[in-house]
């Protein structure tokens, strides 16, 4: 697999201060995530997670917030999107010293999708990080927030018992400085994928 994916997007002069010279706005549904973007191609954006379940937990999203479900991803974007996902998984696993990755899509509200924008969770994994290993899925259920209220569900309200890993309430959102530091580190890791 080629490690170079060409990007062709247009920058604006919005002055986002994202640190990479790229000032094009990026949205995850209606949330502005411009500062969290570490990878940008015509078919995919990699964004840093505000409340990661494990170190290195990122999201890969299509650039258009109008693509809410996997079935909405245009046919010409499917291959490039998943090729980018494959590259992200491979590099992230190596950079984080992980032995595996969980790659998950919650496709539709009834599957646990809480933000109406197609997104793929990538979680670098290590032996013993969750017991049992698939307890990570219960954490994904609790990860989201209700986009209509802007609030995160409590573990009790989500009806999920703790099986491994931190409860959502135990995962405070990272500071802006922490987000920007991880974003910059990841931008360097994926610099050959950028415009």
UniProtKB/TrEMBL annotation:
Coiled-coil region list:
none
Q: Which GO terms describe its molecular function?
A: hydrolase activity; nucleotide binding
Q: Which domain of life does the protein's organism represent?
A: Eukaryota
List the PROSITE patterns hit by this protein, alphabetically. Answer: HIT_1, HIT_2
Keywords for this protein: Hydrolase, Nucleotide-binding
Domain HIT as annotated: residue spans: 24-132
Pfam families, alphabetically? Answer: HIT
Indicate which residues form the motif Histidine triad motif.
117-121
Q: What is this protein called?
A: HIT-like protein
What species was this sequence derived from?
A: Jaminaea rosea
């Amino acid at each position: 697999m080629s490690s170079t994916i060409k990007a062709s997007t247009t920058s604006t002069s919005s002055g986002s201060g994202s640190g990479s010279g790229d000032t094009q706005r990026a949205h995850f549904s209606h949330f502005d995530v411009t500062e969290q973007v570490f990878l940008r191609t015509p078919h995919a954006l990699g964004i840093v997670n505000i409340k990661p379940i494990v170190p290195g937990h990122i999201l890969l999203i299509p650039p258009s917030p109008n693509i809410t479900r996997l079935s909405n991803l245009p046919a010409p974007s499917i291959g490039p999107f998943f090729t980018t996902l494959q590259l992200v998984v491979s590099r992230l696993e190596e950079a984080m010293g992980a032995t595996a990755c969980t790659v998950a899509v919650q496709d539709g509200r009834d599957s646990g999708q809480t933000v109406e924008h197609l997104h793929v969770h990538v979680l670098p994994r290590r032996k013993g990080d969750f017991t049992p290993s698939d307890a990570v899925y219960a954490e994904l259920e609790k990860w989201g927030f209700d986009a209509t209220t802007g609030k995160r569900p409590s573990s009790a309200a989500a009806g999920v018992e703790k099986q491994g890993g931190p409860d959502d309430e135990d995962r405070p959102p990272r500071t802006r400085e922490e987000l920007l530091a991880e974003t910059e580190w990841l931008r360097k890791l994926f610099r050959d994928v950028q415009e």
